[in-house]
Amino acid sequence: GRPDRVSFNNLHSDRSTGLVQMFLRSNGWILYCASSPFKWPGTANLEVVSTSFGKTWVAPCMLDGQVVDAIDDELNPGEPIEIHPFELTSNFPFSGLGIKLSPSNREISYATYLSGVAVAPELKEFFVPAIGGENLYDLVDFRLAPHAIAPEKLRAFIAGGGNLSANGLIPISSPDAYAHSAPAAAICRAVSLYQYAFACGETSSFLRFTLVPKKDFILKHKLVVFPADSFGLFAVLQSDVHSTWAWRWGLRRETRLVYSPKRCATTFPMPTCPDELSVIAEKYYLFRQSIIEARGEGLTRIYTHFHDSNEDATDICQLRSLHIEMDEAIADSYGWHDLDLGHGFHETKQGIRFTISEAARREVLDRLLALNHQRHAEEAAAAAAQAAKRPAKKLGRKKQGSVGQSALDL
User: Over the stretch 153-187, which tens digit does the pLDDT of each residue have?
Assistant: First the structure.
């Protein structure tokens, strides 16, 4: 037979679906016909892909109605790869989802917060902005984000003799009702240990990273947070080199990327000297911030202009030039001096994007995957060598008295 499959686009990128394809391929099945993601013709707001497999297929393959020699796992022309990246232990110092607020800690809008403070000024002592994915990308000023209670601040306020009797429009419970979970507390500790914190939204159409406040803010669970001591990490994360990797190995929700720290960050082989990228990273970030403030637009609007081939405003063109400069610095940090990234407006599965060329994208993925396997082998060898240095445990002989005592006990 020839099995045909229709799956949601977000499931197509899931590892479970990839395992189905790997199982079929490993048992002699050939992916001979497929379609790129398309809008479901029914009423549901879904994108789907279709794939067809055959065991005795010898004719040319068909991809989106075009004849191709073969179809790879990304539903592009080309032979499928059967190797996947490993998680690396010596990679990012920390990356993870932000804080999930306790059920009692309900956010209030900034307007509601201001109204509450007008009645009860003490609310300023323990309410702080809570930044989520939409706030990260849409707000020009993070202080205007919805507010929530910082439990440690509420506890300190009460311990200092603060009075909650006049809290007006917003009733307040005991600090324990708002306490963070153990994983959330671990995130707070990790962020406090480093000089900077960068973040992206867990789900996005354009992968964008930015600097986020470390104090007097709550970084919510719809953010992926990266503490760092070097601003150079921003250049790595915001680069098309990292974005290409994330889109390849991340998950999907409709046409949007779901950035999984485990799949996108832990597997990504970092450049060996990210500190050297700090200069271009700060240059890019500060110029982008100046555009945000001058235009009064958040990151979503800025990158909509960035990827619009009809947008020729001076500030956006300069941002593109800085992006090219940053990507080239990243490539040089890997020693890829021979690689032509081919920046320009290119057709992608997400639409027209100002990014590296398709040929460069494939070459970047190949080189990163090879480097991932090299790093994994080095880590495995180092772990084995460390284990060999540990003295073997000696198995002591039981004392005769203990044997006799066991017999008496029996």
Answer: 999 998 988 877 655 567 788 888 888 877 777 78
75 or 227: which carries more pLDDT confidence? 227
User: Residue 302: which pLDDT band, with cuts at 50, 70 and 90?
Assistant: very high
The label of the residue with tokens 């500060």 reads 286
Angle between helices 314-333 and 278-295 (to 10 degrees): 160
Contacts by 103-110, CB closer than 8 A, 24 or more apart: 104/173, 104/177, 104/178, 105/148, 105/149, 105/151, 105/177, 105/178, 106/148, 107/146, 107/147, 107/148, 108/146, 108/147, 108/148, 108/170, 109/146, 109/147, 110/144, 110/145, 110/146, 110/147
Three-class DSSP category at 341: coil
Residue 71: is its pLDDT beyond 80?
no
CB atoms within 10 A of CB 273: 10
Q: Which residue has the higher pLDDT, 276 or 36?
A: 276
Q: Rounded to whole angstroms, what are the CA distances from 191 to 132, 139, 220?
A: 16, 22, 13
Radius of gyration of the chain (CA): 26
* Cβ-based neighbour number of residue 66 at 10 Å: 9
**pTM attached to this predicted model:** 0.79
